Amino acid sequence: MSCCDRNKGKDAIRETVRKGYARIAQSGGSCCADKSCCAQGVSADDVAHSVGYGKEELAGLPEGANMGLSCGNPTALASLRPGEVVLDLGSGGGLDVFIAARRVGPTGRAIGVDMTPEMVSKARRNTGQFYDSTGLENVEFRLGEIEHLPAADSAVDVVVSNCVINLSPDKPQVWREIARVLKSGGRVAVSDLGLVRPLPDAVRESVEALIGCIAGAVLVEETERIAREAGLMDVRVEKHSIYSDDPADWADTTYASIVDLLPQGTVLSDFVVSMDVTAHKTQPR
Questions:
Q1: Would you say 211 and 20 are in contact if contact means Cβ atoms under 8 Å apart?
Q2: Could you tell me which of 132, 137, 89, 134 has the C-alpha nearest to residue 109?
Q3: Domains of the chain listed by start with CATH number
Q4: Which pLDDT tens digits describe the chain residue by residue (285 residues)?
Q5: Measuring CA to CA, how many Å separate 73 from each of 118, 162, 180, 272?
């Protein structure tokens, strides 16, 4: 396959993801208003609590900031400190940006990047409500691709991301960009989906599985390798089970169609886990 053919394939994947998340942004509320994202009868807050967010973190957030798209809590993983500059890759409705903004305080800054204009517009509309409730003016949302971050070299203290890097068709480029924008000594805290065994071809080729963050996932070991090759140090991955082993729990959702594509006798958790990835950019000697 030529480089042009590969680029066309990557562009097609990005456009599929962009359109899918534009529909979610336009669904009139949380991701769970669109049954492609959450189990029937499960709220966005339920999803957030299940992956590690506390009630205090979710309290007082702008309406619709939590869209039920999380697979971990990277802002807690990052141990954010006052005065830090934080960059969130694939910020969606702004959940992690708004939480980070409260933690870094008025002397810090929280910046979200998303490639979907509808998501950026949604998040920007939420900033007024955030200011009214907190008095903080330390939030910004930028339109851009995570493979080509709209941020200067060595500009941020912390990079976070929540269930987004798996969607990228060029993960090595994403991790190189993370290393580029981090200051010396800066750190990474990413929650994402990873594979403990390769997915069947039918799942990898499923559009529903792509939008559901599964088809784009790679082996856990590959994520570790890519992050190290990007120049990051002390790369550590902690794996967590995230999916129920009972397909009935995902009835009437995208995941029901994915489960139908699995080999007989297997369940989604046999293949996919949530992973917390931490690393840092080494300081020059």
A1: yes
A2: 137
A3: 3-281 (3.40.50.150)
A4: 444 444 557 777 677 777 777 777 777 544 443 333 444 446 788 878 878 888 888 888 898 888 877 888 999 999 999 999 999 999 999 999 999 999 999 999 999 999 999 999 999 999 999 999 999 999 999 999 999 999 999 999 999 999 999 989 899 999 999 999 999 999 999 999 899 888 777 776 665 555 555 667 889 999 999 999 999 999 999 998 876 555 455 444 555 667 777 778 777 778 888 899 999 998 765
A5: 23, 7, 23, 18
